[in-house]
Design brief:
The structure holds two protein chains of two kinds. By secondary structure, chain A is mainly beta. Helix content of chain A is 0%, strand content 55%. In chain B, the strands form two sheets. In chain B, strands 2, 4, 5, 9, 10 and 11 form a six-stranded mixed β-sheet that branches. The chains are: A mainly beta, B mainly beta.
């Protein structure tokens, strides 16, 4: 089991550019979560999916953020256009219902 | 409302001492989970305690849950330098089909050799 795989590990981009973060959950897990972590706000839940369906996106900060899960083995988080305040570490996590979360190692995003 | 508020925000102790971290939450829960995060890495699950349990042990970890006070504590006994990390609690709230997990700000634990 390779665990939750996120790519890229680091992303540096200029303000206004589109950023796409990718996540491959653990096979067999039916829930997928996207979190954002900063020093100021801690670990924020952005959106989560259950059986590939978005359940709650109330944590998505703005319309610039969108997330998709086209199948059980892949999800993307897109920011368009990116802004410096989007700089953070973005984590993807997956689990079976009622079981603990398994986190990826995150994508460190820097927007200049 | 924010679930899983940890206390203290930071804790620094000597190696060999015990470390206690607390967590408070606001709504009824199915279970409460503790996670650990080393710098630059994702969170790793440590222990899960269900709402009908009061205490649980795993190695040097001891977790208690008081549902009447909506609080939990994590005790690490005989601490080691390698225990230095941030510790988070998260709750699985009742009545939510997909059970989203919301984390607090965490407790940053430093073990001094």
């Amino acid at each position: 089991d390779a665990g939750v795989i996120q790519s890229p590990r680091h992303e540096v981009t200029e303000m206004g550019q589109e950023v796409t973060l990718r996540c491959k959950p653990i096979s067999g897990h039916n829930s997928l979560f996207w979190y954002r972590q900063t020093m100021m706000r801690g670990l924020e839940l952005l959106i989560y999916f259950n059986n590939n369906v978005p359940i709650d996106d109330s944590g998505m900060p703005e319309d610039r953020f969108s997330a998709k899960m086209p199948n059980a083995s892949f999800s993307t988080l897109k920011i368009q256009p990116s802004e410096p305040r989007d700089s953070a570490v973005y984590f993807c996590a997956s689990r079976e219902s009622g079981s603990p979360l398994h986190f990826g190692n995150g994508t460190r995003l820097t927007v200049t | 409302s924010q679930q899983g508020e940890e206390d203290p925000q930071a804790l620094s102790i000597q190696e060999g001492e015990n470390a206690t971290m607390n967590c408070s939450y606001k709504t009824s829960i199915n279970n409460l989970q503790w996670y650990r995060q080393n710098s630059g890495r994702g969170l790793v699950h440590l222990i899960l305690i269900r709402s009908n349990e009061r205490e649980k042990h795993s190695g040097r970890l001891r977790v208690t849950l008081d549902t009447s006070k909506k609080s939990s504590s994590l005790l690490i006994t005989a601490s080691r330098a390698a225990d230095t990390a941030s510790y988070f609690c998260a709750t699985d709230a009742l009545g939510q089909g997909a059970q989203k997990l919301v984390f607090g700000q965490g407790t940053r634990l430093t073990i001094n050799p």
